[in-house]
Amino acid sequence: MAYVDSLLSKCTCFSQLKQLQAHLITTGSFQFYTHRAKFLDFCAVSSAGDFHYAVHIFRNISSPYTNEWNGILRGIAQSNNPINALTFYVSMSRAPCKPDALTCSFTLKACARALARHETLQVHAHVIRFGFDADVLLRTTLIDAYSKCGDLGCAYQVFDEMCVRDIASWNALIAGLAQGNRPNDALLLFKKLRGGNMEPNEVTVLGVLSACSQLGANREAGIVHEYIKSKNLDRSVIVCNAVIDMYAKCGLAGRAYDVFNEMKCLRTRVTWNTMIMGFALYGDGEEALELFERMGQAGIEPDSVSYLAAICACNHAGMVEEGMKLFDDMDRCGVSKNVKHYGSMVDLLGRAGRLDEAFKIVQSMPTVPDVVLWQTLLGASKTYSNVEMAEIVSKKLVEMGSNHCGDFVLLSNVYAAQGRWHDVRRVREAMKGQDVKKVPGCSYIEVGGTIYKFMNGDQNHPRWKEIYWKLDEILLRIREYGYVPETNNVFHDIGPEEKENALCYHSEKLAVAFGLISTPDRTCISVNKNLRICGDCHVVIKLISKIYEREIIVRDRTRFHRFKGGACSCKEYW
Fold it and tell me: What is the pLDDT of residue 471?
């Protein structure tokens, strides 16, 4: 066996592999199923092999052994059509040989890649029936499969039922929770892991860093980073990149830049791209472009991701000419453009009010514009109250079959801003007719290591009465500074008082009010919002930062807003 392994490891191309097969056949070694199985496995999954050739050999074996089935199954699971592994698994189950733990493992990996939840349940049943459920590695694969298929309940159940857990079991569930929109649970599981006698590793912290990034959990981010440094995990460039990304997404671009400058390992292109995008999210276009220049000077050629990050930075900073130059430079430097580059340019020109130029960019695309591009242009039409453009774009979206609530809301807001309530009602009726549901606004805030979630008009928090009293106080105080509610874009055709109430209890206002009553004076308040912050909330939070002398960071769907002393880092360009 070791002899065959040694020869296989020396094969670097398919012709050499075929020469080895000829050698094994002429020496009689190929008749031993253990040698055939090794050869099939290598041929099916190695870059030097050929999967179709491996299948051809397999079909000429009269009675394949389990290991030979497994070799082909593994190859299918790693192919572009992993769902085919399930059909192959069924065929194997009907063959004289019986599946083993590896068979189930490869099939579960195929289920995870194909997002086949129902099939994962079926294979899980087989794992129990065959008596493989005590296998820690197989249970870890089960957790990973359930997590990737979106069934975190079953993933947790498998985890809880394990008598013995290794770090790979823990890592699979933490990553699954972080990727499955349950980042808070991922952080809680990480705390539980650290409270035991097992030590988190590089894979663990990557999952936790992702959870912190999603939540914008500044305090937890700092704790995780300190742990990483204490265990020297920051010697890994992958971990450092994730830390930079985490701090950037938590609104701490300065700390992200500190990590970038203090790295103990060699920076990769991903490192530079991550930091440039961090500055972009923060709206610091000048720093982003300076870093983009330094990247080239350091001998690292910018790729399409680098250009996208730099153009996004120009977008958020209102640097229109610089963004257009970068877009043109891509052709000169031979860097291919994709729909995201075009989308960023449409957004850049649209934010600047140059809607006709943005429309021409869409029309100039070598591929068919996607829904997001038209939605971007619709958003710009709303910003500049361009009814004609909004109607043109809305028609395009309807033709493409878009049924997103945001499309209807933006168009209705364009009409509402012009007082065209008949058209607003028409859009609302269309929404009802197509059963379109408006995505509810929600915001997250971290206080004392706990993440709190607020919805628009939320009264579910135990301290909701105190929060509402604080909001009443805020409204009284900001009116002294000339605050007037921005009710022109409120969706409904209702009276002024009702419009003000609709604005007053937006989720980000509730979260900020909770932060004011729950944290010491002069400490920073950090809020994450799932949608774009509205104009009224932007004005209110600016005034709160001045009156209450608080720095407030709000991360919305597209960027960060850092409010301090009555001003915002976006410089009113968002």
Answer: 93
Query: pTM of the predicted model, to two decimals?
Result: 0.76
Q: CA neighbours within 13 Å on the CB side: how many for 279?
A: 25
Given a contact cutoff of 8 angstroms between Cβ atoms, the answer to whether 437 and 405 are in contact is yes
How does pLDDT run across 89-138, given as a tens digit for each residue? 999 888 888 889 999 999 999 999 999 999 999 999 999 999 998 888 99
| Lookup result for tokens 């030097």 | 48
Q: Where are the domains of the chain?
A: 338-439, 442-568
Q: Which residues of the chain have a pLDDT value below 70? A: 1-2, 401-407, 431, 433-438, 486-502
CATH of 338-439, one of 2.40.50, 1.20.120, 2.30.29, 1.25.40: 1.25.40
> What phi and psi, each to the nearest 5 degrees, are found at residue 78?
-95, 0
Residue 554 C-alpha from the chain's centroid: 18
Rounded distance between C-alpha atoms, residue 528 and residue 183, angstroms: 13
Residue 406 pLDDT? 66
Structural contact between residues 348 and 311, judged by C-beta atoms closer than 8 angstroms: yes
Backbone angles phi, psi at 18, to 5 degrees: -70, -35
d(CA 311, CA 324): 8
Distance CA 555, CA 281 (A): 9
Q: Are β-strands 525-529 and 450-455 bridged in parallel, bridged antiparallel, or unpaired?
A: unpaired
